[in-house]
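Morning run. Coffee first, then this:
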Amino acid sequence: MGHQKRTRLAGPRPASLLTGLAILTLTAIAAGALYGNRMSLENSPLASFFQAYENGDYVLAMNALLPAVKDLSPYEKGKENLPPYKRDEPVYFDIMEKLSGDKAVPQQAPEDKEIQYYLGVMHYKLNDLEAAKRKFLKCLQLDPSYRMAHVYLFRIFARWEEELLAESGGKSESLGSLMIEKLGFGSSDQHLQLADELLKGGNEEPVPVFHVDFLMDNGAIKNLKINPDAAPDPENRGRLNDELKTAGRYRVEIVSKDRHCLDEAFVDTEQTMFWDGKDPSGQSIGGRRILKSFPVILDLVAPSPAERMIIYDPAGKKILEAPVPSR
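And here it is:
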């Protein structure tokens, strides 16, 4: 991926945080209380927010929210401008203590965390990574087991780490100090580990996966098929490494009834085919060809019941929506 791997949560960690990383007891709570009795967002006043979001009009979507919701911060008042480490440390302790069960998750409306999550997605798509990070951290304060918020934080930190690796000239002593100074408490490895552990949820049973295939034909989606996959490989997260850069790509999202994002994948609008060989005289020959029509195959995980799949074009506009078949 081009950036050094690091597994760190800067600073000392009490036993409760280590327990939180290993046990993830709130996964069971999320599967019940947080997923069991949510109202449908389609019937809420927030319909205009999601309608604008699905139309790719992020400015209109943000303006549809009250400032108290749109500007909600993970930081205590007066701490927003502290250096990254001091600013983020209490936020991460808060999230980990909630994740381990040592601290209660606040009572909230079912859509609260969804709003913060999708605000994060919009900021990410607009390449405002700091704003995106803050929204995803706020989402995790409301629901520390929101796996896709951890996935996006993995992407954000991975991009920043890659930039700092180049800035440090590959010197480990310079890299470490730069990461503490500029990135603070979080890391890509940390959030990837949490996303994977939340996917497993302490259960040895395979996580349900939907097998998606379609034809990408000059930007049009054709012959879409969605089927449960009987033999998934939920531990294969290599795909995430290919999704750090999302500009110019289609996004395939699978969501539950209450708009909770369960998984997503990105698809290129074209593919490059390379070939090589030898001519009759034995000379090496080769070339490449740009394909604008090609098959796409994806596996999307569904750790809780899925309702529909949505495909967005590179501008963020919904171009297709399909129900997910029951398992």
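The chain has two domains: 15-200, 209-323. Good start to the day.
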